[in-house]
Design goal:
This protein is mainly β. It has a domain of 68 residues: Immunoglobulin-like (Sandwich). Helices cover 0% and strands 40% of the residues. The strands form 4 sheets. A 4-stranded antiparallel sheet has the order 8-7-10-11, with no helix packed on it.
Length: 123
């Protein structure tokens, strides 16, 4: 076994996605003693990072604006959409990506999509 007089070394390498790699460590202390560790687990690197996209960072796209009928909302997957009038009254809360504005009076409405606010004009 090597003594505790060790230095840490970091390595970088280029990998090919979806290929399984085996690693081993060979260490030599200052006295010339070598030790090889090959018990490291095999690792597979993937091209894509797994995770959940942060949809709150994406600005919602609302069209057509101005509208006289169906309003389409993009980039709002899984988020609650709330429609308010200019007085702050909640008119609708939904998770749908289409809102029928034809039943509302002409005017300005505020669409809350997650933590983003979009002004919508109904004509």
């Amino acid at each position: 076994m090597l003594n505790n007089n060790t230095e840490q070394t970091e390595i970088e390498f280029t990998y090919i996605p979806n290929i399984r790699y085996g690693f081993y460590v060979e260490a030599t202390d200052k006295a010339g003693n070598k030790e090889v560790k090959s018990s490291l687990p095999e690792v597979t690197f993937y091209k894509e990072t797994l995770g959940i996209k942060d949809v709150s960072a994406t600005k919602p796209v609302v069209y057509p604006n101005p509208t006289n009928g169906i309003l389409h909302i993009e980039n709002a997957v899984g988020q609650e959409i709330k429609v308010y009038d200019v007085l702050g009254n909640l008119l609708l809360a939904t998770h749908e990506d289409k809102i029928d504005m034809s039943g509302y009076s002409n005017g300005i409405y505020l669409l809350h999509v997650g933590n983003k606010i979009v002004k919508v004009v109904k004509q």
